[in-house]
Amino acid sequence: MNRLGPGLLFAGAAIGVSHLVQSTRAGADFGFGLIWALALSNLFKYPFFLFGPKYALATGETLLEGYKKLGNYVLVIYLILSIVTMFTIQTAVTIVTAGLAIELFGITNDITIWATIITASCLVILLIGKYTFLDNLMKFVIITLTISTIIAVFFAGFNSTNTLELTQVFPKEEVGIAFVVAFMGWMPAPLDISIWQSIWTLEKKKKEKNIKNSDIIFDFKIGYLTTIVLGVCFVSLGALVMYDSGEVFSNSGGEFANQLISLYTDSIGNGAFLIIAIAAFTTMFSTTITCLDASPRAMKLTSKLLGFHKLNNYNFWIILLASGTLFIFVFYISEMGSLVKIATILSFITAPFYAFINFRLINSHHTPKSFRPSLFIKILSVLGILFLTSFSIWYLTIL
């Protein structure tokens, strides 16, 4: 288990809104018809996530330090994109976590109060425990969720009276197209998490000095495979339990959480409520705390590399992100669905930038030849850049 770390942090960051929210919605609304979108997203994004730990192991640097070598303009673009997206993304994951807290604890139905409690708790934990806490927490969370979800899917399939229909569909109406783009935006995760992965890789190397490079790559692949398996599982839950039932997911955080947990209890039985509720909550809590930790780490290093010395402070960025998230909750949050959609679409539209920059860096003279990608990964990368770019341009033209 000590070999595992950054890969499970990746899984913890990825298995959140994209899985518990978007994947279950995909199954509930389209059955198994969007498996193609899940498969293509995971396939074409894989190389660009892999380049994060690869570059860190090859050079002892994060991707951000590599970006600086390509030119300060790359870091400036990253800084702008991060400021535009990080508050919305943090709010989106916190909404789902707060909704699950309402369902699990029931002390108050005020989602803003729960968001404040969750954000404050994450802030205290991170300022005290930092990477070691995250590393240990994720092993428990991911294993618990994986086992409970696979069991739920098994019973859902056994009890379902629906015909297993695997015909793939491509929505033609604007609402359906927007959902597909949002679904792919965070499946398995936004591409800027590759930067976080490079930071976590160096943290793991610092903590476990004798760990082998091959162990870290193996860890990443385990984490990535886990996100794919659970993505299919959540689509299956939505398809087997809710598709063609006439029931649709609510945009209210608390009601959505109730429906999500019902997907499990309808399959396994009400006796499993507490276990499922805890598994779902800890999963989203892990996503919330991971994002709250990673963005400030990345922004701190970006500020340092750009010479913004007054902003080169982890505490400054984490407090800013926490405050900005709560500001959105208090003044701008009306419904969960819209915010999640905005966050996920922004992630998809910015994906081509991260894909191109990561590909350029890993194939440059800044990366030792022995760590550069194989011909197969290069071809897959080019196809991925073309796919992400063309899909984003196409979506922007129909808005």
Would you give an account of this structure?
By secondary structure, the chain is mainly alpha-helical. It has a single domain (6-46, 68-351), classed as Amino acid/polyamine transporter I, CATH 1.20.1740.10. Helices cover 78% and strands 0% of the residues. It has helices spanning 6-14, 17-30, 35-59, 63-70, 72-105, 111-159, 174-185, 193-207, 213-241, 253-268, 273-305, 314-331, 336-362, 375-398. α5 (72-105) packs antiparallel against α13 (336-362) and α6 runs parallel beside α10. It starts with 5 loop residues before the first helix and ends with a helix. The model has no long low-confidence stretch (mean pLDDT 82).
List the helices and strands and how they pair.
Layout: H1 6-14, H2 17-30, H3 35-59, H4 63-70, H5 72-105, H6 111-159, H7 174-185, H8 193-207, H9 213-241, H10 253-268, H11 273-305, H12 314-331, H13 336-362, H14 375-398
Helix pairs in contact: 1-6, 1-8, 1-9, 1-11, 2-7, 2-9, 3-8, 3-9, 3-13, 3-14, 4-5, 5-6, 5-10, 5-11, 5-12, 5-13, 6-9, 6-10, 6-11, 6-12, 7-13, 7-14, 10-11, 11-12, 13-14
Using brief descriptors, characterize the structure shown:
399 residues, mainly alpha, Amino acid/polyamine transporter I, 78% helix
